[in-house]
Records
---
Amino acid sequence: MNALGQSLLNFWRSSIGKKLIVAVTGIILVGFLLAHMAGNLLIFQGRESMNDYAYFLHHFLHGVGIWLFRIVLLGAFILHIVTTIALVRQNRGARSEKYACEATVKASLSSKIMIWSGLTVLGFVIFHIFHFTIRVDPDLAGMKDPGDPSRHDVYGMVIAGFQNPLVVLFYIIAVTLLCSHLRHGIASLFQTLGLRSEKTRVAIQYAGIAIAIILWLGFLSIPTLITFGAIEDNGEAGKHSSTTFVIDPPKC
Amino acid sequence: MASNGSLDSAIPEGELSEKWTKYKSKAKLINPANKRKYKIIVVGSGLAGGSAAATLSELGYQVKCFCYQDSPRRAHSIAAQGGINAAKNYQNDGDSVYRLFYDTIKGGDFRSREANVHRLAEVSVNIIDQCVAQGVPFAREYGGLLDNRSFGGAQVSRTFYARGQTGQQLLIGAYQALEKEIDKGGVEMFCRTEMLDLVVVDGHAKGIVVRDLKTGEITSHAADCVLLATGGYGNVFFLSTNAMGCNVMAAFRAHKRGAYMANPCYTQIHPTCIPVSGDYQSKLTLMSESLRNDGRIWVPKSAETAKKIREGQLTAADVAEEDRDYYLERKYPSFGNLAPRDISSRSAKEACDEGRGVAKTGLGVFLDFSDAIERLGEDTIRARYGNLFQMYEKITGDNPYKTPMMIYPAVHYTMGGLWVDYNLMSNVAGLHVLGEANFSDHGANRLGASALMQGLADGYFVIPATLPNYLAEVEPGSVTVDAPEFAEAEKAVRERIDKLLSIKGNKTVDSFHRELGLLMWDKCGMARNKEGLEEALRRLPEIRKDFWENVRIPGSGEGVNMELEKAGRVADFIDFAEVMLHDALDRGESCGGHFREEHQFTKDDEAVKSGYTNEGEAKRRDDEFCYVSAWEYKGPGEKPVLHKEELEFENVELAVRSYK
Amino acid sequence: MNLTLKVWRQAHADDTGSIETYPAENIPEEASFLEMLDIVNERIIEDGGDPIHFDHDCREGICGMCSLTINGVPHSKETGITTCQVHMRKFRDGDTIWVEPFRARAFPIVKDLITDRSAFDRIVAAGGYISVRTGAAPDANATPVPKIDADAAFDAAACIGCGACVAACKNASAMLFVGAKATHLNKLPQGEPEKDKRVLGMVRQMDAEGFGNCTNQYECEGVCPKEISADVIAKLNRDYAAAAGREAVE
């Protein structure tokens, strides 16, 4: 192996190297979540905004964009999980004997359940992809935008998808655990990237909590409001609201 | 060569200030290819041992280093708080090598060798350079340069410090250098390994017998010379500021093998320790002497007020300014609270003996920061002494920002130790002794911030230069562990362990240690007299007999057995105490850490009448006792034989030590 | 005061070990925790038993030898102190106290509460120093060091190498220890030339010794008797990333 390869292998093998990978992939995933939430919130603007946005996502860069995006995201996601599992295995091995009397002095609950919140989110993500991305349910897959039947009706699909209380429950649990994961994870990535110091310590801590809360409110507002009937699919074509989605869908 | 009676101190000829330079330029050298053929054993890994092992390895020797702790970083040098002296004169306050030399000689009450002390002062400047280069985080000023403070017994600011953890930082520096050499293969480190005997072959120290404290295995190690850097014997008093494991075993084993024990009666009682609170107590905690820079020491003027404080009816704050006796400021106006350790300690004892002590036990005086806090603000005081105040509060439960600390003297450092010449070699050829374990530099009393200086001077700079003088004369590897002397020593070690284990008596090792300590503190502590010393000499054989008949050591010699370890150490403390008592009895004068009640200034003395010194101060008798006592071991229970090394002072005038 | 002790006893490294119960009666409140154990041990010896073995030496909180996990927390739940500085006045009469060794795979138990922490020495040997031959140093004031850096270096250098950080970490991570040493030396201009080598060497050794990695719970910081901040871990991470990057391309 050449010297560069050896250095990279050393990096991968080292605990800090793996931690850095977790942190960097974590940034990508947090960035995705923020964008995803922002997109989702378009549902409050109505059918057209939502469906315009979905259409754009699927067609920018002539449809290649979304695949590039998905590949990066999937890569980060897999690397995040694989690396974390490697670290957890190493950590469990490092402390083989447990204390008869266990106690902690400052570890947060979120930090203690990282692997469980993470694995739950993994399960949820798989479900979520089958549910809304691949759309294994033919009823959801077949929905058409009443204003433009050539395109998929994401707006209607989301409302329909959240009609099942079990789905909503799972969604709430998973997003809550995700936000717990982020409450510890976001602050942690600053530490792992070496950006935490006496001056930044408090800001980083609150930034982690704030982002987690924003995501929690943002994501959960949708199924909650749908469940309580605040958002309904009345079958009408969407109307452009005052703040129209800024990028016009390509005409083709 | 200057002649010093029957013992040759090997002091180089020439002007005092040129001796070391000339010595180095003429000293024997060993070429690099040959250095690696020499094996050197270093026992102890503190400032002296650790720095010596690292430096000798850097030079190319093969070093084996031994310590009883689980890591060389734990040696008790780590506990030194205050600082390290060096004649850098960075403060431009008139310091110089000569002044540090003179202060050390005077502080030692004119009972140390001029040449050794001058060398120490010369080398002090190199130590600071070395430590800074190693990354020792000394305190700095805003301009980025090193800060200094003043310390007991000095009128210049020459003490370098790293908050209250100077010893720790210096030791970590030496430890890191040692680990670097371990990694390179120059030093083989043996932790949790205790030296149980010295092996002397044809009059030369050629190895040691050790016990692996984890497995109990007894093994021999041969080398071309042996360096002992095993610290002092303060734990002969049971209660001291030393670590629990500090012991005299290595030095005493060497003593039994022929090395002379010098000036064992010189023990330093540190004035600023936390008072004893009960008989369960296992050790005493030192508060750095640097506290005396800003703290004022006092007791009430009247014994009645003191009694009320002891009984909790009054607090320090209730005592009006005019009813307080700031006794150090009163008796020693020019040094005040910074008077040398022996003087401060004895003054505290006097105050308490007069019934003016303020701790519950009656043995304690106030160290008061209220004036300093008023003058400088609490933040400044916190920056200077924060960790010490915190430590005090943890132990006593009192907050020293609000109420004055209570302090009392405790055994802290031992100036005596194995006799060595200018080369740091004992009278046993090849056996070199470094740091607190030797007697050489502090005379009868050590100045504050000088122990770290001496340990590092010996290890970093002196021994690397003087050792070749001996090594050049010997064939490397001439003795191996196959020599019959090793088998004989191993056998003796095994028999001793078996004997200790077979007693199966009914008293714990600690109970004997406590008994010995109380006797020594009582009869050979801060003040001694002929009657008491003789009584102690009568009682010691009884303690020894009782020990060897009734000590109870559970378990076996295999694996970890801490009671067995302690038993070996206490057995040697008992034997060592006897030498110490003989020395204290022989020295019919008061000097430094040795105060004989029979020899103190009275109101009839000229020096008292003239106001030069006070009644009750230590009275040296230079005409009769200006010598180093070097004791030769003569067998168990036998009186050791005294050899004298006369001390010659060519550069300083012997004066009555006055800190008025 | 009267207490009940639940103490980990293990005859030797290969023994399975178990928790044993001992009464600790008539303990003076002013006694330190280790003095309490001394008293219990004297009674055990007088009764013909094998005393509880534990590491201790200076008993003033600086040597780093004492290493007990008291009620699940290394050096007890009181902050900023070592085991030897724990005093019995902090407990209540009748309390049950759990006393266990510092647990980590990299700290194998030697006997009872004594562990082998030599892994720390090997980490230091792998780079935790500044290479300077004795006698080769320039004048101490030749290189001014900004006070802020000197103080930060000192804060990190306060580490006593006790291993409480490892014992408290659910992953038995040594990152606080390694971070403290790296920060101490990397913060100073004297430590600059060997910075990369130091960080890479120490981290490699830390991993090889079987310590886990940091999951940023900061338990280490919470139990550190010298209250070293987990910021040193951030700095170690940063220095490591930079060093690994430079190693890869230079």
Note: The radius of gyration of chain C is 20 Å.
---
Amino acid sequence: MLIGLLSGLAVVCFRISIETTRIWLLGSGLAPASWERTLFVPLVAGIVVALLVMWAFPDVRGSGVNQTKAAVYIYDGYVPFRTVIGKFITCALSIGCGFSLGPEDPSLQMGAGIASVMGRRLRLSQEKTRLLAPVGAAAGLAAAFNAPIAGVMFVFEEVIGTWSAGGLGGLILAAASSVTILRLFLGSQPIFRVPPYRGFSAPELIGYAVLGVFGGFASLVFLKFLAYVRPKLRKLPRWTFYVQPAIAGLLIGAIGLAYPQVMGAGYVYIDQGLHGQFTWQTLGILSGLKILATGMAFVSGTPGGMFAPAMFIGATLGGAVGGAEHIVFPHLHGSVSAFALVGIGTLFAGFLRTPITSVFMVLETSGNYSIIIPVMISNTIAYLISRRYQKVPLFDLLSRQEGVDLPSLEEQREQPVLRVEHAMNPPAFPVVRSESLVGEAIAMATSANAHVLLVRFPSGRWMAVERSQLDRYGEADGRGRKLSDVLTADWLPTVHPDQPLDAAIGFVQGRAVVPVVSRVDPGKLEGVLTLDDVLETYKEASNDSRGSSHSVP
Amino acid sequence: MEEAKKARKWAARVWTRETLLLTSLLALGILFGVTQAAVSYYHGKQADLANRWFQRGEAALKANRPKEAIDDLRNALSYAPDNPTFQLRLAQALAADNRIDAAEAYLLDLWNSEPGSGEVNFELAQLEARKGNPDAVRYFDNAIYGAWKENTAEQRWNTRLALFHYWMSRHDLGQAQGQLLAMAAETSNIDFQRRTQIGQLQMQADDPRHALEQFREALRINSRYVPALAGAGGAEIAIGEYEGAVPYLETAARLAPHGPKVSDQLRFARLVLASDPFEIGLGAAERDSRTIDAYLQAQSRLASCATQRGVEVASDSPQNPFQQIWAMGQQLQLTLRKLRGQPQTALQIMNFVYSAENLVADECGPLQGKDKALWVIGKKHQLTGVSGQGGH
């Protein structure tokens, strides 16, 4: 909770700093006060930011999400406090001066940094410190979005990747407290206001599907731009790092002369797009220019995030598709606002590749559950298109460009889970009831030429008995005794066909065989599992995945 | 010894942790204070900027520069996105710039948060009316019965007035008249100016009887109020009560001698009264004289109109309406000297007059002066033309 409170305060100050910088340097209007400011303020800011990044805060380049992931997976939760300060200053300057970047990614990293500092100062264990960074990240992101659920979901989907009750509790508490702080100081209004949504008719879903296609390809263009240009710029001589942000700033300013909407995070224009303030042609142009402006800002190494630009691109693209749909199909009544709102989620799914967060994001910001069907349709299509043509997701792409191979949570999600049913074999061992006589069991083992028999007890429990053991029990008139009387309680563990194979490994070690039984009837044998079966299955799966292993584009 | 060392180490660690927690709480408190100060400055600055941009926007809107107003109001809204006044003004500016859909989006947003707001409903109603959307009526009704921040009665009056104009634009006189009756019911008895206004609107809505009531009500309070006098005269004329119209119009003309419309109406009313052969109390000679005058006037006008249209009225076998009516007139010419004591003959002559003037009105444009007076007399006495049976 303390992490959430501190992260919330940091995000409040961060947002105020961005806004104050904008008012001071670009003017108090939505568009910059003059053409000179439009052109030269981003240019000068680019130079200052480059100097700060190169001399004072070298770690603030790149994605805050990846840096948080690196902290979790590589550096035992360590995020330097200097990075927090650096992110705050450089991002406030760059975003406030019109760079087409967003404050969410830096907020996430600042939250993670604050949590990391807390963990270190409290001398928590390495394990706990590692867990704290995502908690802070969720708090920072939740405050930046003013949307606690989306913040938590994103961290689970992109940073942690696994669900645990303890982790979830910490994340929710931190996210809730940071959002509370944000609302306490800056009010409870969402980052943009969503007009009332009037529901949809079935034919309109085709329009939303079309939006998904456009969103998927727009995401691809954006991703391919980053994949192609960023490595090239990173390979340039070091001195160019001083001028790259300035050149990007100048180009963004040049775009801003005609379309000032592309400058900065653009929340106000998302709001206007949601309220039908632009023609569909203008919205289409804005979405294209925003991809260009954001791409240039990011590849130049200027610190800042891509969440807000992705939302801007999604909203404008959605509005453009919605507006065009009204012209092509005038009888459909889906509002442009609804398309713009769905578009936000579509870009989240296609570009950031966080399909679950994208749905929650739209639901949380719109406060309207009935929009979920268009959002799910559009997001799914965009996600599938993006994944089909760009195998490596954004954050993995960025980390690999930086030479760090962080675990890809999307790939982890995609990996097939090996289950017991993949490794089990039909029961090759004779099965006898515990009420059977020892002599009967010996006869059965002899006829089946088996060295092990499985014994089923009425309670549904199982034992394994070797032939040599049976022979010992059968000596000296023992053949007439019941198995249940002679066997000592050495129960076999049982597994079910749908259980992950990982969980079964512990059971098969040191045992000849483990029964695979039905969940409905524990006495019903579905198959058997041996250590050799398990190892063979893993070996086959390993060979398969090696054949289709990914490559960095 | 070893245990004591461990205990000291543990105590030191706990102490450090507690100290750090306390320090963190202290830091949190300080950060709270610093953030509060920063936020106060920020909010103050935002409010100041919002008001400055709003004032600029409102001035531009009043000066009929909607594009400029839109930019300024958008700037204002960026600092106070939830301010309903800013949103409403922006919607008005957008509507003034003919960006109906954009204006509607803001208004619907406002409506969602304040569905009972009279102002929002009124703006929405006007937008929907411009789009020709029947939803306009619903929003007008909401506005009439909605909550207004100030001048509720005045705003409701304006809303009803706008609704009246909406119905008039859709040529639905019944709904328009109903709206005016509702306006009359909500108007104070002593507000003679507003009653006169209602009367004038009722005249527009072709409801002269109710209009006359409103004018009379207004004159009851202020008998020298010229618009009401003129309105009452006009309403009497519209009803066909020329005798009743004259006193109102005479008074109006006396009080405002330069009112051309009143003078024209008065002159016309007097002409009708002076030309009507069916007027009660007329002597036989006067009645005959008026009838003959009417006949001659109608015959002359029919002939001139036929000439204008290039039609020869005299014909042995009448083919067209001109010739048919002219032939009827010729037949009646012989009866002119035998009018006295023959009311049926006078009626036939006036039927001819009405038919002739009707035809002239159809073929040669609006009637003027005495021709119009004769047509009005025919209409007033429910004459049916040469083929029908008239009577009064």
Note: Confidence is low (pLDDT under 50) at residues 387-392 of chain B.
